[in-house]
Amino acid sequence: MAEAHPNHFAYGRMPLPDTTESNLLELLPDALEFLCEARGSGGCVFVHCAKGISRSASCVIALLMFERGLSFSEAWQTCKQKRPIVYPNVGFQEQLKHFESLLSCNDRTAPWPERLRQLRPLVPRGSLEEPGSHFKIHDAIGQAMGAMLGDLEAFLEEAASEPDMSQRQAEVWKRHGPFFENVQLYHALPSDQTLLQRTRLTAEKVCRFASGGKAVKGGGSAANKALALDDNNKAMALGKMMLAWVNASGPSLGQGKLLLGGEYDSDSESEERDSGRRSRSRSPNKVLLMCCYYCCCCCYY
After folding, report:
1. pLDDT tens-place string over residues 52-79
2. Using CA atoms, how far apart are residues 275 and 258, in angstroms rounded to an integer?
3. Domains and CATH numbers, the chain
4. 213-216 long-range contacts, Cβ below 8 Å, gap at least 24?
5. Helices (DSSP H) in the chain: which residue ranges?
6. Which of 14, 42, 46, 74 could make a disulfide contact with 287, Cβ separation 3.0–4.6 Å?
7. For residue 85, how far is the Cα from the chain centroid?
8. Residue 140's closest CA among 99, 94, 178?
9. C-alpha closest to that of 268 among 42, 55, 2, 39
């Protein structure tokens, strides 16, 4: 993207494709330095990518964690209060959780330049898919998927003995739906191949739960029945998304291979995908950080 107003803005760019395995962590020290310098000089900051969902949100979440000492979940919720649709891809989520652990070793009483100096040697460099990486992204994704599957399995087991789970299931679908949708759309892959069969079995249980229409049984007002039916529809959609991920990822995991990912990009959904018209060797998607000195345009503060 061209620097349209160089006399009014200072521009900074992060070359960061929106894929689960892209190394966000190694870019954060430079991004934070740019942001902190701008804010420290009294300027406002506008952080954006193509759609303001994954990459730019991840940068702002990292800034909140660094500046305010917030946890990853706290920083994410702070962003969502201003922009509800923000949702870092699952790989970035796990990297930001790791970033939280790195910040726990940081001296928060020190000036921010010193804190960044301490942070730089700690962030993993290069590919997060290499065996020698200090932070293995596919292991982290697998742990996150395992935890979410565990929650679903516990809910389904509890639902088998409870007469009415309508209130609880609304919370379950709201929490798990976006996660597994993200896993499926980004073609996220865990290193643990056993998660493939586990996801299939859990997805089939979710679909059976939805097909049974348990939530709409037992009377109640028309409004409550409508809400329960909506929950069953969400459950069915979740189960189908999980099965779609299994079917798409099964061949690669079964052969012990990991997909490169990047076929879906929530921040670049409208960008050209036809490899015949756009070469993959061209400049990758980027986050553009704009430090505004003359006008107050700030999305998150």
Report:
1. 999 999 999 999 999 999 999 999 999 9
2. 21
3. 9-125+285-292 (3.90.190.10), 137-190+192-254 (no CATH)
4. 214/159, 214/165, 215/164, 215/165, 215/166, 215/169
5. 28-40, 55-68, 72-82, 90-103, 112-119, 137-159, 166-185, 194-212, 222-254
6. 14
7. 11
8. 94
9. 55
Pairing between β-strand 44-48 and β-strand 286-292 as defined by DSSP bridges:
antiparallel
DSSP-derived pairing of the beta strands 9-15 and 44-48: unpaired
**Is pLDDT of 293 > 70?**
no
Q: What digits encode the pLDDT tens for the residues 143-193?
A: 999 999 999 999 988 887 775 666 677 788 888 999 999 999 999 999 999
Residue type for position 37: E
- Measure CA 4 to chain center: 30
Query: Would you give the DSSP letter of residue 45?
Result: E
Other Cβ atoms closer than 10 A to 169 = 23
Contact status, residue 169 vs residue 155, Cβ threshold 8 Å = yes
Q: Active-site positions?
A: 49
Taking the CA atoms of the chain, what radius of gyration do you get in angstroms? 21
Distance CA 231, CA 216 (A): 9
Q: With beta carbons less than 8 A apart as the criterion, state whether 280 and 1 touch.
A: no
- Which pLDDT score is estimated for 165? 63
Q: In what order do the strands lie in the sheet with 9-15?
A: 9-15, 286-292, 44-48
pTM over 0.85: no
**Nearest of 112, 96, 43, 125 to residue 292 by alpha carbon:** 43
